[in-house]
Amino acid sequence: MSDTLPNIGEMLLATVPMARTLNLEVVEATADRAVLRLPDQKDFHNHVGGPHAGAMFTLGESASGAIVIGAFGDQMGRAVPLAVRSEIAYKKLAMGVVTATATLGRTRDEVIAELDAGQRPEFPVRIEITREDGGVTGEMTITWTLRPNA
Questions:
Q1: CA 125, CA 102: separation in Å to the nearest integer?
Q2: What pTM was estimated for this model as a whole?
Q3: How far apart, in Å, do the first and last CA atoms of the chain sit?
Q4: Which end of the chain is less packed: N or C, by CB atoms within 10 Å?
């Protein structure tokens, strides 16, 4: 699988209806890093006028999915990527456009080696959610697995 933006971004948006519903924008998507943006949309505001916590969670989860596609898309013929658990911390009030940046917490080679050994590897994806002024509004960790096909 290529790690170019159109292939990964298009795949994400084609397979994740919620990402399309929120009008998420794929800014960057490679095997090393994924950056997605949530536009400022009144329909998805909370009671204080910023993006709803659920929209921010979906932004972060979608960024994590993009990097998983980028890093392990070539393994999807033998394993299905699945989110196992997640944790999010809302740090500061988010207003306006917010951006999620995702990075892998383990190397691709380590994860593939476990898959090759017949294991079901787990790996964290760390996500930072920021406002346009650079303020960190949220931090997430989503643990993913590659479940081998039967």
A1: 6
A2: 0.92
A3: 22
A4: C
